[in-house]
Design goal:
heterodimer, A: alpha/beta, Elongation Factor Tu (Ef-tu), domain 3, Rossmann fold, Ubiquitin-like (UB roll), 3 domains, 6-stranded antiparallel beta sheet, 7 helices, 18 strands, B: mainly alpha, Ferritin, 9 helices, PaaA_PaaC (chain B), Aromatic_CoA_ox/epox (chain B), Ferritin-like_SF (chain B), Phenylacetic acid catabolic (chain B), FAD (chain A)
Chain lengths: 358, 251
Amino acid sequence: MARFFPLDVAEIRRDTRDAVVLTLKPREGDAEAFAFTQGQYLTFRRAFDGIELRRSYSICAGRDEGALKVGIKRVEGGAFSTWANQELKPGDVIEAMPPMGAFHTPIEPETARHYLGFAGGSGITPLLSILKTVLAREPHARFTLVYANRQISSIMFREELDDLKSTYLGRLSIVHVLESETQEIDLFTGRVDAEKCAALFSRWIDIGSVDTAFICGPEPMMLAIAASLREHGLSDAQIKFELFASGQPGRARARAASSAASVAGAQCEATVTLDGATRTFRMPKQGESLLDAALANTIDAPYACKAGVCSTCRAKVLEGEAEMLANHALEDYEVRQGYVLACQCYPTTDTLVVSFDQ
Amino acid sequence: MPETMDIEEYLRQGGVLTNPSNVPPRYRGELLRLMATFVDSELAGSAGFAAMINEAPGLKARISAARIVLEKTDHAERVLTLMGTFGADTARYAVHHPWAARLPRDADLGTARHRSDMRLSVFHYPLQGWVDAVVMNVLMGRAVGVQLQEFSHLSYAPLADIFRQIAPREARHAELGEEGLVRIVATESGRAEARRSVAFWRPRIAASFGREGSARFDTLRRFGLRRRTNEDLAAAWAAEMDAFLPAFGMA
């Protein structure tokens, strides 16, 4: 089960106008839990106005740096990233789960692989971790990084990347593609789309020599690059993705106010939304779980274990109240936000409005 | 090209999701269901096969059977660990069903699940001795190959990665079964026994590909969790069987 640990904020370095790099220190005894693989991310939690938010940020340190660092770029309207950029200070404590994620390939020191990385904006963070680690641990490896940004001033880790280029002369090649700043070579201006990829592969990058490609950026960029890589002969197994968290809402919504508790009644009018379709049916308050009642009314709700263990049947109560007999899968903050396991859920009010789509 | 896009549109266009925080709620439900089906089937399959280790006719066969049991359990663990990143209690999950339990051989299950256990219906039938176990392993091994080929392209990258990694090992399990089957069909009585097992398992494995015209399929395809229909996959497997069984003297 997910577990959070306190991390001390040892250092905060401002990297660009709206991005900071945090150096974090696990407490005595927790260091092993925070040993990471290149390309992994940390999930943080913090309460904003009493509502817990969780956000994942990629580790930007290499495995041989002896430090745990994450880069956080401020997102317009994003509660967590704004707080990290404006209010967090050295000496503060922040809570995080141990590193997770599989955005990497195994290190093989004897091989001479050619890696190709694509980063869009703050998507550079896991790629920085990967390229530093593979260049240090695979002495014959080459890395080509295509790094897309709006303008020079928004490039995260610009100096560090320049330094790495000198350290790994001939093994690290970096192509900066800037959207709104003209460069000497047209190829390096504009967005990284299918056309740009095709041009890069025909004139700049020997795609035939690439063993593995890593992509981290916003959704349209990932789609365009992946399609182009496949078109140029890479298999799915050779393309590794990390989608950064643009889809995460800035602020969790409060649970809808529940209706007044009902007088004792044996029946409940349940309204269930699944895949955008809403259906209402009557069910007993006891003896039949919300999931079973929904299935009996031919609603094709997702479930697996029916034992409160797997969380497949997670749904959100929007109106009314319900109790769960067992819960081994949802965390307290999810329960506070109104989530229930439908297989363990019994209504306690006369009406219950539930959605599987939220 | 816009800066970002709706996640469902992204999936419709073949996009890939990479961690639990990317995943929309309905997608999450279907993904967990798919993972639970795999985990339950691997655990039930290996638990049923474990009893067959003692039926093995020789040391090599014994080692093969033990290896299949070990590796299928390992494959279940890999996917269960991924379920844990979505909140599943993996320790409880691993023991929440009696994986070795079976129904009577003559039970008529079709494609239906039995109670809350998500194992494919075919894993509810008991194995009857070594020849039966080998035949089941060979036929099901090819079916798993067809399924893993499909799942290696699904849109949740960490799960697709696992399926790509385990596919060669699962293929090897089927090959080990085929090596055993060659020895079995070398005698007339062995061939007759194997034929009876093929007649029993073939329709039941065909049913494990799921219902025709499944309503869930459209949702799964929209989410990038499936590409080919149940019927397509079942037909691909049937064609493989038609080409393959005659080589063992079985039609």
